[in-house]
Design goal:
Layout lengths: L2 H15 L5 E4 L14 E4 L9 H15 L4 E4 L1 H10 L8 E4 L8 H9 L6 E4 L2 H9 L8 E3 L13 H10 L8 E5 L8 H11 L6 E5 L5 H10 L6 E5 L4 H7 L2 E4 L8 H8 L3 E5 L4 H5 L3 E4 L4 H13 L2 H18 L2 H15 L1
Parallel strand pairs: 1-2, 3-4, 4-5, 5-6, 7-8, 7-10, 8-9, 10-11, 11-12
Protein name: Poly(Glycerol-phosphate) alpha-glucosyltransferase
Enzyme class: transferase
GO molecular function: poly(glycerol-phosphate) alpha-glucosyltransferase activity
Length: about 350
């Protein structure tokens, strides 16, 4: 499940609870995650990857907007952002907000498309200041037309539960005293699991632990082969796609993120809300997010990542819990979905 998709649904749920009318238009029809609130209408356009039905999809979206008559149209990620900007050429919108979710959303062509359609949006946002600076630096947007707006999570859903810890550890036959590292995310180049496996191999030279990885992706076979080549496959537990990630957050002792690039990773907020001890690479907004409540190391450097993991694991469980308490409090104050929803409402109000 993508973090951006979950963020859209969480925002829709929160805005709906505040009395807003919400319609979500999905471009492709491939829906992995849905809003929890039934009042939020979800419509799929069925847009094909080869774009052969692009114009019919554009006109259908125009008709949907005509019937719904929104005060704000808010698109998320590259394809929806470009689609909604082009849609504005044929359908009046009081305001169009376009949100990117990463420092990198493709190559030069995508950055070119962002640049030439920039004036069709009312305002653009990104999920970390680093990501904003990256877009401006690549010439995708003008310096005054993109602002930082963080992601938020449902802190009531992600919280430490002792019974979840026991249940999930029993599932993989790990005692409460054994060290369990956790990483969650798609098995893609951006997440740099290659770096994580090499770092874990270095860590295991003088330590003992298990590493659980939740996620699937195009690099799955390659990464599993790498674990075998490094002779650490008996220490790595591949959990594939799971719908109970929040329970695994309670089961782990240390959460590790090895990404090469990010925007603002929601999964770190989820781990922090679950009182996790965090080790992360320095990419996107991770440094600001984790500063003082976790370990931030250089990206694409297995040796440094291994040291970060070792430093976290050297702490007593009581010390990790104390760090986790501070981490959860930070998320509650700055990154709860309710707090972020208030920020969006203020922005929406300023545009209408």
């Amino acid at each position: 499940m993508g973090g951006a998709e979950r963020q859209v649904c969480d925002l829709a749920d929160s805005l709906s609870a505040l009395g807003c009318r919400i319609m979500i238009i999905n471009l492709t029809g491939l829906i992995d995650v849905k809003p929890r609130v039934q009042d939020v209408e979800v419509v799929s356009l069925g847009l094909k990857k080869n774009l052969t039905n692009f114009l019919p999809s554009l006109f259908r979206a125009s008709k949907l907007l005509a019937g719904f008559n929104p005060d704000i149209v808010h698109s998320h990620m590259y394809h929806a952002n470009i689609f909604s900007r082009l849609l504005r050429l044929i359908r009046r919108m009081p305001a169009l907000v376009c949100t990117a979710h990463n420092t990198v959303e493709g190559g030069r062509l995508r950055m070119f498309m962002y640049r030439v359609t920039d004036k069709l949006s009312t305002i653009n946002t990104n999920v970390s200041q680093d990501a904003v600076d990256s877009f401006i630096g690549q010439g995708a947007v003008s310096s005054h037309r993109m602002i930082y707006m963080p992601n938020g999570i449902d802190v009531s859903h992600f919280c430490y539960v002792e019974s979840h810890r026991e249940k999930r550890r029993n599932e993989i036959n790990i005692s409460n005293d054994e060290l369990l590292l956790l990483s969650v995310g798609r098995l893609t180049a951006a997440k740099d699991y290659n770096n994580l496996l090499h770092a874990f191999s270095i860590f295991l030279e003088n330590n003992c632990a298990k590493l659980a990885i939740i996620g699937t992706g195009e690099l799955e076979a390659e990464l599993k082969n790498l674990a075998k080549e490094l002779a650490i496959d008996s220490h790595v537990i591949w959990l594939n796609r799971r719908d109970d990630v929040f329970q695994w957050m309670s089961a782990m002792d240390v959460y590790v993120m090895s990404s090469a690039w990010e925007g603002m990773p929601l999964v770190l907020c989820e781990a922090m809300a679950s009182k996790g001890c965090i080790v992360t690479t320095d990419c996107g907004g991770t440094k600001d997010l984790v500063a003082g409540v976790g370990f931030v190391v250089q990206k694409k450097d297995a040796q440094h990542l291994a040291v970060g993991i070792e430093n976290a694991c050297k702490l007593s469980r009581a010390e990790r819990i104390a760090i986790g308490e501070k981490a959860r409090e930070r998320v509650k104050q700055k990154y709860s979905i309710d707090a972020i929803c208030d920020k969006w409402l203020k922005l929406y109000s300023s545009l209408t």
